[in-house]
Amino acid sequence: MIQVGDTLPDVTLMEYCETEGPGCSIGPNPVRVRQAAAGKTVALFAVPGAYTPTCSAKHLPGYLQRYDELRAAGVDEIWCVSVNDAFVMHAWGRDQGVGDKIRMLADGSADFAKATGLTLDLTARGLGLRSNRYSMLVVDGVVRTLNVEAPGAFEVSDADTLLAQARQLKAPA
C-alpha cells in the first residue's frame, strides 16, 4: 500500500471535458497522474463509487463545501477519484454542482487503485473491484498525508480532516 513519502504512481486517469481547449478535446481526456500533480499541492480523495450513498451525501459535498478553505490552506487542486468511467464521473460532478472546483477523475480499470494498493473488493455486492475510501494530501507528486478508511467507515477521509492537515503543512515550522 502507498505510504506517506511515496510518489504517486505513474498511471493515467480519465477526465471528461465539456469544452475544447488547449490540449483538451471534448469528451474523455487522459490525465497522467505524476505529470498533473507536479509542482502542485493536491487534495486527493477516493470513493468506492459515484452516486453511492455516503459518497454523494457526505464525502464529495464536504470537499465542495470546504473548497475555499482548502485553497486558502495552500491546496491548488482537489481531485475526486473513483473506479467509474469518465462519463459517470462527469455526470456525478455535474449533478453535485462541482463546476471547476473539483477534478472528477475516472479510474475505469482500477489501475490507480491497484497501483496504490488501495483496492476494495466488492464483488460479493455486485460492484467488482473498487477503490477504498481515503484521502491524501500530495505535494509535488509526493504523498504527505494519508487517511484510509476501514471498510464501510467514513471517519478520517473527510474534508475537515484533510483541511486540518493542509493547514498544519502550510504553517511555518
UniProtKB/TrEMBL annotation:
<dbReference type="GO" id="GO:0034599">
    <property type="term" value="P:cellular response to oxidative stress"/>
</dbReference>
<dbReference type="InterPro" id="IPR013740">
    <property type="entry name" value="Redoxin"/>
</dbReference>
<dbReference type="Pfam" id="PF08534">
    <property type="entry name" value="Redoxin"/>
</dbReference>
<feature type="active site" description="Cysteine sulfenic acid (-SOH) intermediate">
    <location>
        <position position="55"/>
    </location>
</feature>
<dbReference type="GO" id="GO:0008379">
    <property type="term" value="F:thioredoxin peroxidase activity"/>
</dbReference>
<dbReference type="InterPro" id="IPR013766">
    <property type="entry name" value="Thioredoxin_domain"/>
</dbReference>
<comment type="similarity">
    <text>Belongs to the peroxiredoxin family. Prx5 subfamily.</text>
</comment>
<protein>
    <recommendedName>
        <fullName>Glutathione-dependent peroxiredoxin</fullName>
        <ecNumber>1.11.1.27</ecNumber>
    </recommendedName>
</protein>
<dbReference type="InterPro" id="IPR036249">
    <property type="entry name" value="Thioredoxin-like_sf"/>
</dbReference>
<comment type="function">
    <text>Thiol-specific peroxidase that catalyzes the reduction of hydrogen peroxide and organic hydroperoxides to water and alcohols, respectively. Plays a role in cell protection against oxidative stress by detoxifying peroxides.</text>
</comment>
<keyword id="KW-0575">Peroxidase</keyword>
<keyword id="KW-0676">Redox-active center</keyword>
<feature type="domain" description="Thioredoxin">
    <location>
        <begin position="2"/>
        <end position="171"/>
    </location>
</feature>
<keyword id="KW-0049">Antioxidant</keyword>
<dbReference type="GO" id="GO:0005737">
    <property type="term" value="C:cytoplasm"/>
</dbReference>
<dbReference type="GO" id="GO:0042744">
    <property type="term" value="P:hydrogen peroxide catabolic process"/>
</dbReference>
<keyword id="KW-0560">Oxidoreductase</keyword>
<dbReference type="GO" id="GO:0045454">
    <property type="term" value="P:cell redox homeostasis"/>
</dbReference>
<dbReference type="InterPro" id="IPR037944">
    <property type="entry name" value="PRX5-like"/>
</dbReference>
